[in-house]
# Entry
Amino acid sequence: MERRVFLSALGALCAAGRPVAAPAAASPAAIHAASSIDDDVTPFLYAMTGGVFRRFGIDADLQRATSGSAVAAGVVGGAFELGKSSITSLCAAHVRGVPLVAIAPGGEYDINLPAQIGLIVRADGPLKTGADLDGKTMGVSALNDFFSLASRAWTDAHGGDSTTIKLTEIPMSQAGAAVITGRIDAAIVVQPYYQVALADPKIRVIGDPSSALGTHFMQSTWFTSADFAAKHPDTVEHFMRAMREASTYVNGHHAETADLVAKFMKLDSVPAMTTRIPQGVRFNVAQMQSLIDIQARYKMIPTAFDVHDLIYPPALH
# Structure
């Protein structure tokens, strides 16, 4: 309750009688951010390279991270002002009392679009459905992240018992090789690693784990510390506006932005991403609440909570 009162007061302070002026032309606000490597990061990359941040008075840079949990730790520790993680990683931090607030949507899942995420196994192996995963070891980018939740829900929805799965952390860049060599039985990969898996004849995709969580929802979010948001409301406001513009552009220009993630990965050879993740422009609180409730049902958090406690109030305007 105290946290919600604080966030409401913070939102009122930022909104009351304070029209958002055009960013000052003086010295731009420096933002150091971090994200795991996936297609969700494309709007931020476009905002950097396409001059969107510059027009909003922001000088931003972005560091690569292995997981959303690592990003959250970096924001809490002060290494970064902003970060991106799965909604589930942010929820896990929230229930531990970590003062982080969601400020802009990341990537979304839409069951009606071509798959952007896959549960992969060896092509010559026997694993084909959820029941075959009982007792098996599955690789995820971080324990108790979005992929951990999706893997459990998909296994249960397809005849398996998710309580028997052994989840292990592995960088997504190494997941395919680990499956092929038998170090793990299965793994979840998302774009651009999903495209890499599709192109490898030694790998087979047996399902879309996100489909077990809903038909359309936000799977990741950009966030900052409550302290940074309170001390730098104008910078956060300009960031939110810049990301809305950048996400809208990316959604309408998939071909023009397809190479941004490949460059961010610093890899010479990455299969062309023929399908892309839709980027969120506005928060959908009902969809976010549903994920929180599912996370609580799978005991990944002790109990469900009101999603409004997690969102920086001005981000809903």
Notes: Residues 1-24 have pLDDT under 50 and may be disordered.
